[in-house]
Give the backbone structure.
Amino acid sequence: MTTATPKRLSDASPEELQELLALIGSSDSVELKVTLPAEAHRAAIRTLGLDPLDAQIRQVFFFDTPDLQLYKKGIAVRARRIQGKTGDSAVKLRPIVPDELSEDVRRSAAMNVEVDAMPGGFVCSASMKGKIPNGDVLDAVGGSRAIRKVFSKEQRAFYADHAPEGIALDELRILGPTFVLKEVVTPPEFGRRLVAELWLLPDGSRILELSTKSPPSEAFQAAFESRAYLEGLGLDLSSEPQPKTKSVLEFFAAELENEAATA
């Protein structure tokens, strides 16, 4: 397995660029992402015409050990309650090389292999996804349902194949919730679906991510068009990426550590 750190394209060797092309060719989709610094949030929301009344509310829970052993091994386990829809769950592994997945896993309808591309970097992930009623997610985080029952048999097997030995799903701690406002727009001058997600952490900090997906065959064209469109709006895409999962996990892990210290 490759390193968990996204590669910087500016530092990439010809061999690494070839690796990117191979990853894109073996993936199901490519998601282009950018996070904006806090001082740019209001301008971006106004410029894109985002309306919070049109946003879908999501409540996200991650599951990990207090010292984030799963995250450190490139594994993310999460469940979401989604306004107006069925909730969902996922076991995500990254980075991965698609050809290293077993044939059964790669062909599963629940599996999605995706290349995430950010300004200056890329990483390939494999997500085993499932649907779960919102009420079942609430029961699990409330303690009346085992955490493992939020995940399908196929997801549990995928977790068992990749998780550190001895860390069972039911032993994981709940890291969350984090509230997310999601809105999808299709600006006429852009011509692609643009997803805006505003992640609201309990300490008042926010993460605003803009993203668009494309099939692998259109990845480079979509990347060029996305950058040109967003920069044309006056948005600064040069700031360091602020990964959502990392920020959320570190916040709640620190909260658990503080609780343990004062207990």
About this structure: The chain has a mean pLDDT of 92. The two ends are 39 Å apart (CA to CA). Residues 244-262 form the longest helix (19 residues).
